[in-house]
UniProtKB/TrEMBL annotation:
Name of the featured protein: Dipeptidase
GO terms of molecular function: beta-lactamase activity; metal ion binding; metallodipeptidase activity
General function of this protein: Independently of its dipeptidase activity, acts as an adhesion receptor for neutrophil recruitment from bloodstream into inflamed lungs and liver.
Cofactor(s) the record lists: Zn(2+)
Taxonomic lineage of the native organism: Eukaryota, Metazoa, Chordata, Craniata, Vertebrata
Oligomeric and partner information: Homodimer; disulfide-linked.
Catalytic activity: an L-aminoacyl-L-amino acid + H2O = 2 an L-alpha-amino acid; leukotriene D4 + H2O = leukotriene E4 + glycine; glycyldehydrophenylalanine + H2O = 2,3-didehydrophenylalanine + glycine; a beta-lactam + H2O = a substituted beta-amino acid
Residue spans crossing the bilayer: none
Amino acid sequence: VMDWVKTVCLVLWAFTFNSVADDLKEQALKLMADTPLIDGHNDLPWQMRSLFNNQLNTVDLYKLNSTHTNIPKIKEGHLSAQFWAAYVPCDTQYKDAVRQTLEQIDVIHRMCHKYPEVFKFAASSQDILDAFEQNKTASLIGVEGGHSIDSSLGTLRTMYQLGVRYLTITHSCNTPWADNWLVDTGSEPEAHGGLSDFGKQVIREMNRIGMLIDLSHVSEKVMNQVLDISEAPVIFSHSSAYSICNHKRNVPDDVLMRVKEKKGIVMVNFYNDYVTCQTTANISDVADHFDHIKKVAGSSIIGFGGDYDGVSRVPDGLEDVSKYPNLVAELLRRKWSDEEIRDALGRNLLRVFREVEEVRDLLNGTKPDDIPIPLKEVQNPCRTDFVLIMTLLNKLL
């Protein structure tokens, strides 16, 4: 009799558990139907380069199954807007970083042109809402790594004209004007005490043109210096909470508080190593980061920054971009309110984007900064010194 009673209890428990889970998933999907899910960082364009040498004509994103991201997964995950990363590795610095980055910008545009029924290119906060109304995935560009502009404000402005809407100040290498996160681990020497004078120029020029400043990958000194300098809110496009996982790619509590004061956003990364500081993680571990950031600085600074297709390990339950509703359901299970969920899904990023655009509009009468980085700070065999060439020519003449 006791065995029979245990069996009935287990069946009832399983039925109740599954019923609750189904209800939460349904609620999650309803919220995602009226508020766009905006993800801060996806490296599918890098997969196009590394797997197919950017030969997009040979790829079918409806059928591609070797990546975290394809069109059926995007649809199942209700991914309404995506910042696609135009990323090239640090070893391109001082060589062909600009060319390779332009090729990544090009492949993002070509993705939108090849699949106009799925992707709508977006370069403003309003474009995201327009794409959502059309049931398309707004496709934005973020350049991942300051080495991609080759210490040139002209290149920064040109990339903005091509639709780039954020620049990650560093990747995993120092630039001639900013220190990266590895400085805080001791594995790389500090080069600039955070930002150099030219680095501060870059931040001000990004404010002027309306480009979002992304602090993922930078040193803690750079985080604080940018928060001091920037007139606009900042973003962390794919970083998590340092107090939950003590990895230097994550954001410390004191910086979380400053991001709140600046009305910025931290978009939570799903990479296992940044979630648990181990090789394994699950969906609950990711939700712990959301909970912690909300506890420290409120739900107004939280977003999603999966880092799909840029990482080798993702949590159980978040295997690819189709799984976003599972995480939303987990937050609902943890008693997040509908309004808090809507903020994290997309309203926070939209607010930040609008404020960046407002700062741009206020600075509309300000002239472009045309003071170059001092040559001695970037001198290398691949850089041409036109000033020196003209001086020599004038002497010859």
